[in-house]
Amino acid sequence: MKSSCPRILMGLIQTFRPIVIIQYNQTLKVNSKYNLLSKLHLNSEEITMRLFHTFTLVTALIFAGVAYTQVAYDQTFEPDVLAPDGFKTNRTSYSAIMDVLAPSRPEVSQAQLDQLREIPLEAIFAAIGEYRTTYTTGFANTRPGERMVGRALTMGFLPPRPDLVRAAYVLAEQGNWDRRYYARAAEEAQPGDVVVAELGGTEGHNLFGDMGATGIQMRGASGVVVDGGMRDLVGLQDDRFEGFPVLHKFSDPHTTSWLGVEYNVPVRIGGVSVLPGDIVVGDDGGVFFFPPELLDDVLEYAAASKEREKFQLDQLTDRNYRFRDVYPLSPELQQEFERTRGN
Fold it and tell me: What is the dihedral sign for C-alpha 171, 172, 173, 177?
């Protein structure tokens, strides 16, 4: 059923058109020889259409205003739920985001993580689809050439101020943890964890030094990513830290002073978001963070990619086909590759 609005608008236009034209003529004091229509070089139909468009716009704005004002200016909301006793001293800071996502994030085994150590970052990039933007660069590596693989144990820091310091001390005492979050990690990190600390980037502050890194290493952690700084650079480059790279933005001799305010919650590292439990893969070039539910897909893609690249290299060195037919594989060579995989 067609709307009656256009017919109503046309009726209004036909009613008011003579009045509008007369009023314009009187206002402009145009004599009968040079009336409004001749001045504007518009015929009756053009005037009608312009009035139709004007009435349509005005009507739309009126209805939009009516729809918008249907919500009261002074809205009422349900009051926030107060935290129950003991809630604020949970080992993990509460995150509504993680509460929503938790059911979709599976546990990851050490065997799965070990497989990632040999997978090129390019293969990971190709396999993670929409999460390709979670790669960030600009870090120095205390163990050049060594790769870091693990699960993200995240922590967020803020610069100190008196009331924040006071609250941090109260929570640390009530929750029985060290207010220095690197020290918490030295007591609570699990094997395969990668400590990921949001510490203000190049304008931020230091996370730890030699002693703090040693404590975290002794817990079995795989390394540390600091979007900020560290101290004791020479000590952290010692051979006893083999297999424990620390990716950092800078190093200087300052002791730590920023306060840990959130433990194992979403953080920002460089220009990317990192969630607790994310898979972390980092080396001298940069770091990938992606959700654990993608790990099986990454491993499967990497295995297939490795086979495909070997097949392509064999074809190139045999010099039986043009480069363009080998890279990427032509439909015929792709079929041959599939046949060789099946054997």
Answer: positive
Look at the pTM and tell me if it is higher than 0.70.
Answer: yes
Q: Per the structure block, which two tokens stand in for 214?
A: 């040693």
Distance CA 152, CA 194 (A): 5
Looking at residue 146, its pLDDT comes to: 96
Identify the bridge partners of residue 282 per DSSP, sorted by sequence position: 148, 287
The four Cα atoms 234, 156, 112, 297 give a dihedral, to 10 degrees, of: -120
CA distance 250 to 141: 10
Query: Which amino acid is it at 319?
Result: R
Planar angle of CA 142, 143, 145, nearest 5 degrees: 135
Task: Return the higher-pLDDT residue of 99 and 8.
Answer: 99
Beta strands of the chain (E only): which ranges? 135-136, 140-141, 148-158, 193-198, 223-230, 246-251, 259-263, 267-269, 272-274, 279-282, 287-290
pLDDT digits (tens, 9 = 90+) for 226-285: 999 999 999 999 999 999 999 999 999 998 899 999 999 999 999 999 999 999 999 998
